[in-house]
Each structure stands twice: as structure tokens, then as C-alpha cells.
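Q: what sequence does this backbone want?
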């Protein structure tokens, strides 16, 4: 495996019904193509060696013998390959015939799995020809003079990777064989299928595959028969899916008159992490598995040195994947924030809320959430006390945007300058204001928080926090300054998502045309704490991303580190793929080191952070999701990053 990925394929060859030699020739061609592309495991459709629509010919010994000869030919002609090949064929044991999947690799037939559930309703009549797996009496099948292990409780294992197989109807049942095999340890389930085309069926099938991969915390690879099958009563056009924990990674287009193959990579390490951190999955393992009930058959994955780059899209923004749902996700994220704040305001009986408004992204989103919450609760917007507090570093643009934003939303607007108070504070503590160090910067943040807290007391209202998830991860907030509030609505929203949500609200003109123009201006403003003096022209001189690095990189690191538990070397590998052409590897490594250094050293700020809603897979709340001592060493992580330098 390369960084925990296994490259898999689902292939749909042309077939000729009952022409076994032709069929294995087509299968062989796709195996060779898969070998060239670095595929490690490939599955073909149900009964692909004979064809699915043979009807009563299945009961003819000649066809069964032809299928065996064809399988042996396939094994011989693919002996030089390393791909684990899964094909479908009928297997006779005594007086019974089984619809089976056969696994072979490097010329050796490893094992066979009989179909557990036979459809015998509507257009399907499999019980006419085949026996179900429960009727199997023997543990081996004779194929070409070889004793081949056979059974429905079978896993194929290579080191830490386990593969399970089920066949078509098996996946449509309430407790699927694939589910059972997943509980026994299979991280990838392969399904050999013969699913005919019906209007609306493909949509249902897609959701079923997505659901099974999510429910079983596994990868799922599905291949169904295609052109060449009989259309006497049914139509088969070939379809295939590759899914991973609820996400469809690849889907084969239908109604294409050609042989096809889809390839992707299943992330075994992500699956293992999800299972390890999901106690209900492990409790199900205890409830539904027994020792000695499983047969394990070894196979070999390609070695690390032979591995290919992965064949799947790596999202630059995993919080907002590019799958056409950005607007839907932005609205959902915003609505979660509104719902959370509404519950808090109702519980404490507040009719006012206090916020600091800088004219930047975070405070803008927090204000919009608060306004939407007041509208939802039927409270007047005048109850929102929005305060802009220009200081030693405030730019003309952000101050103007802040004032315009508050005016257009119809909230109670306060402007309270903090420059004089900060200078007085410097004098009291003996700090030279010409020294623009952390004292100079944090004094402003704490002065603003003091004003907000005192106004909150005056109005018997909570201070609504504005800091976001990315700032919490990096510790890019002033302790007991903007770090503190009574409820932090942005605590689960990363900086890149804040930008997307605000841009979405501007695009949809949810708060009016005039406000949309202001929101667009805010989105386009450089991200800055504005704690250093502005230029003579009143422009921003301090840009956050120049100091701590691009937020899109930090959000990428954060999601993959906390969401999937990846090690630095894997995150680096994925980041290089995701940001190829935008950031050089050395820059990615440099900012990754900053991320880990700051993440570990700033935990003390997160251990006392205010309440706030979780809105995605990743959260840093010390009460629910992330618990870590404040004095954990980052040395091991930083050492691995240093070792990545050779890859740059």
C-alpha cells in the first residue's frame, strides 16, 4: 500500500452468452490493462465467465465444464500479473450448483464464495438453477483437479488489509453478508452483480451502495453485467461504483456501448481510524461475531516500491468538497449556527446580544448569524448591540464596511474608539507604544473584549464570539481577549468555510441587494487582525496569511489530521497532490511545520474555550470532541516533517 491506499477497479467486459472462452479473453484484456495502471484488486460482474442470462443452460454439465476450462485458461494467462482478480462463474459440488465468485492471483485459484441469497421473484429465477450458500456441505470445491476453499465466511487477507465478497442480491437484504464480513474485519467489500436497468433503479442503487459503505465503515466496489447479455426480457448496460464510507468515489456511465473500467483508491487507514474511534461499530463486532467462524485466505498486495500514485481526487478544501453541493453545504452550516444560537438565547431568556464588529470575515458571519437568529425568534434587531472599536491598526476599508454592515442590518450600532484607553494602559504598565510587539497587539484585543463584556452586563446579554475554528487550531487569538465570549457561533467553522458562507449569503442576497455589495467587499478584504498601524493611506499593513501561512493549507492539515487521523507524511503526500501547481512542496512542508508547532503549543487556549456549535466532522471543543493535555510534546510529528525535506 502507498500511504494506506489500495488501488481497486470494477470492470465490465463484453460477453457472449455461454461463450466462456470469448468471455475470459475479454476479462484477460481488462486484467492486463488494470495491471499496467497499478490496480491491486479488480472485480468483474456476476457469472461473467458464462454470462448471467444462460437460463436452463446452467443445468447442462457441458457449460459448467467449459466455465472451469475457461477459468483455468484465465489463471494461466494472467500468471505473470500481481492483480487479485475476482470473477463470477457457476461451480458444481456434488449434485448442487452454486452461483459463485472466484478469486485468483498470479496463476493460482485462491478461493470461492457462493451467493448467499438467491432472488426468485419478478424477473429473477435463480433458485431454478442454483443452491444458496447455506446448503453448502463441503469446505472445498474441485476446479480443474484442484481443491479450492469455498464458503460464505471467507476473508482474503494481505497484512493489514482484509477483503470480503458478496454477490448481487446479497446486498439488498436486511443483514447483508458484506455487513457480516465487515464486522469480521473486511475493510473493502466487492460485489459481483447482475442488476438490470429499470427506470429509477440506478438512483436507488447508488444510495444503497453509499449507505452500505457508510454503515459498515468500509470501501465498496460494485460491478454489474453489461452489453452482450440477452435482452429477451431484461436489459443490462453495465454499471459500476466505487464508494468509501458513504462517498461515491467513482461511478461508471451507463448506456455506453463499450467495455469499461473504473479505478480508484480505497483509504484503508481512514477506514481503520473511523472504526477504531467509533465505539458502536466495535460493540457491533462483539455482538455479531464468533471465534472460529471465519476462513482467511492469504493474498499479496503490490509492495510499496511498486505502488502507483493514487487515482482519486484530493479535495483542496475537505470542509467544502467540489461535488456540486457548495451552496447547500453553506446554507446548512449557516442554519446550524442559527439554530444553536437560538437555543442558547431562549434558554437564558436574553433579548439582547453583544458583538464586536471589525469589518472582517469572522465578525461579519457572526453578526449575520445573530441577525438571522433574532429574526427566527421574532426579536427586534435593535436588540443586537453591534460595536465597532477602531484602534491603533484599524484601516479605512474595514471601518467603513463595519459601519455600513451594521446600518444596513438595522442593529443598534456603537462606535467606541480604543486608542486612548490602550495608550493609557501602556503608560500604566510602562510599555513604549513605539515597540509594536505582542504587548502592543494583545492590549487592543483585551481592551475590546473588556468593552464587550461590560456592555453585556449592562444589557443583560451574552457576548457572541466571532473567532473561527482555524484560529482555535493555530491559537491565533488573544488569551482572554477575542478568545473569550459567552457563546462562540463560529467555533466549528474554519476560515475557508467562513469565506464561502459569507460569499454565499452575498450571492443569494439573503439580506438585501445593498448588503450584498458590502459582503462582497468584506470577502475580498485581506485577512488581518489589524493590530499594527495602518499605512499613511489608511490601508492594511498586517496580513495574517503572511505570518502564519495560507488558511487553505492549514484547514487542509486540520481536517486530515483530526478528521481522519493521518500522519504528517500522508498529509504531506495528499497536500502535494491537492495543491499541485499552486504551492511548491517545500512551502507545504514549511507551513505544515508551523501548523503542528502552533497546534500543540496552543492547546491551553482550547481547554477553556467557550461553548459553540459543532458544524462539521472536525471540532476542537474540549467538552465533546478533542481532549488533549496542554503540555503534549509535538517532537515526533515535527521530526517526521523534517524527514520529509528529502521529498521536496
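A:
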Amino acid at each position: 500500500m502507498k500511504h494506506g491506499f489500495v488501488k481497486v477497479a470494477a470492470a465490465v467486459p463484453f460477453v457472449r452468452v455461454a461463450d466462456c472462452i470469448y468471455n475470459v479473453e475479454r476479462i484477460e484484456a481488462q486484467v492486463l490493462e488494470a495491471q499496467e495502471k497499478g490496480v491491486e484488486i479488480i472485480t468483474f460482474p456476476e457469472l461473467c465467465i458464462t454470462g448471467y442470462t444462460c437460463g436452463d443452460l446452467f443445468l447442462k454439465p457441458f457449460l459448467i465444464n467449459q466455465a472451469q476450462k475457461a477459468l483455468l485458461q484465465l489463471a494461466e494467462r494472467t500468471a505473470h500479473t500481481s492483480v487479485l482478480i475476482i470473477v463470477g462463474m457457476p461451480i458444481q459440488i456434488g449434485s448442487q450448483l452454486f452461483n459463485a465468485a472466484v478469486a485468483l492471483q498470479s496463476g493460482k485459484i485462491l478461493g470461492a464464495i457462493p451467493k448467499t441469497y438467491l432472488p426468485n421473484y419478478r424477473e429473477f429465477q435463480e433458485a431454478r438453477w442454483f443452491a444458496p450458500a447455506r446448503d453448502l456441505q463441503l469446505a472445498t470445491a474441485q476446479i480443474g483437479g484442484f481443491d479450492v476453499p469455498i464458503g460464505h465466511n471467507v476473508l482474503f487477507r494481505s497484512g493489514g488489509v482484509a477483503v470480503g465478497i458478496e454477490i448481487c442480491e446479497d446486498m439488498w437484504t436486511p443483514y447483508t453478508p458484506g455487513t457480516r464480513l465487515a464486522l469480521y474485519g473486511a475493510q473493502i467489500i466487492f460485489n459481483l452483480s447482475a442488476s438490470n436497468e429499470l427506470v429509477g433503479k440506478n438512483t436507488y442503487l447508488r444510495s444503497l451502495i453509499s449507505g452500505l459503505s457508510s454503515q459498515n465503515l468500509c470501501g465498496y466496489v460494485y460491478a454489474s453485467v453489461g452489453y452482450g447479455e440477452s435482452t429477451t426480457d431484461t436489459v443490462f448496460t453495465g454499471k459500476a461504483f466505487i464508494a468509501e464510507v458513504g462517498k461515491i468515489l467513482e461511478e461508471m456511465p451507463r448506456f455506453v456501448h463499450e467495455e469499461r473500467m473504473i479505478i480508484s483508491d480505497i483509504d484503508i487507514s481512514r477506514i481503520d481510524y473511523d472504526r477504531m474511534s467509533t465505539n458502536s461499530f466495535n460493540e457491533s463486532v462483539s455482538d455479531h461475531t464468533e471465534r472460529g467462524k471465519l476462513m482467511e485466505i492469504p493474498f499479496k498486495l503490490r509492495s510499496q516500491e511498486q505502488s502507483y500514485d493514487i487515482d482519486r481526487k484530493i479535495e483542496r478544501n475537505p470542509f467544502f468538497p467540489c461535488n456540486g453541493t457548495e451552496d447547500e453545504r453553506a446554507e446548512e452550516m449557516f442554519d446550524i449556527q442559527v439554530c444553536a444560537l437560538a437555543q442558547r438565547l431562549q434558554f437564558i431568556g436574553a433579548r439582547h446580544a453583544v458583538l464586536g464588529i471589525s469589518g472582517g470575515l469572522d465578525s461579519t458571519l457572526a453578526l449575520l448569524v445573530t441577525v438571522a437568529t433574532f429574526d427566527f425568534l421574532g426579536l427586534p434587531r435593535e436588540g443586537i448591540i453591534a460595536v465597532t472599536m477602531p484602534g491603533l491598526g484599524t484601516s479605512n476599508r474595514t471601518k467603513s464596511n463595519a459601519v455600513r454592515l451594521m446600518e444596513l442590518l438595522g442593529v443598534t450600532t456603537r462606535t467606541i474608539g480604543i486608542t486612548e484607553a490602550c495608550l493609557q494602559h501602556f503608560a500604566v504598565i510602562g510599555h513604549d507604544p513605539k515597540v509594536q510587539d505582542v504587548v502592543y497587539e494583545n492590549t487592543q484585543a483585551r481592551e475590546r473584549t473588556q468593552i464587550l463584556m461590560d456592555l453585556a452586563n449592562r444589557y443583560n446579554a451574552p457576548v457572541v464570539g466571532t473567532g473561527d475554528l482555524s484560529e482555535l487550531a493555530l491559537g491565533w487569538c488573544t488569551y482572554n481577549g477575542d478568545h473569550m465570549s459567552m457563546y462562540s457561533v463560529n467555533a466549528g467553522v474554519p476560515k475557508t468555510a467562513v469565506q464561502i458562507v459569507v460569499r454565499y449569503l452575498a450571492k443569494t442576497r439573503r439580506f438585501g441587494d445593498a448588503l450584498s455589495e458590502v459582503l462582497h467587499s468584506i470577502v475580498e478584504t485581506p485577512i488581518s487582525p489589524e493590530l499594527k498601524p495602518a499605512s499613511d493611506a489608511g490601508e492594511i499593513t498586517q496580513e495574517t496569511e503572511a505570518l502564519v501561512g495560507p488558511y487553505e493549507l492549514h484547514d487542509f492539515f486540520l481536517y486530515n489530521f483530526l478528521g481522519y487521523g493521518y500522519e504528517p507524511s500522508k498529509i504531506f503526500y495528499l497536500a502535494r497532490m491537492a495543491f499541485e501547481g499552486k504551492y511548491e512542496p517545500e512551502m507545504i512542508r514549511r507551513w505544515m511545520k508551523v501548523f503542528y508547532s502552533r497546534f500543540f503549543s496552543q492547546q491551553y487556549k482550547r481547554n477553556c474555550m467557550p461553548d459553540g456549535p459543532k458544524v462539521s466532522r472536525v471540532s476542537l471543543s474540549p467538552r465533546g470532541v478533542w481532549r488533549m493535555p496542554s503540555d503534549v510534546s509535538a517532537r515526533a510529528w515535527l521530526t517526521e516533517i523534517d524527514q520529509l525535506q528529502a521529498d521536496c
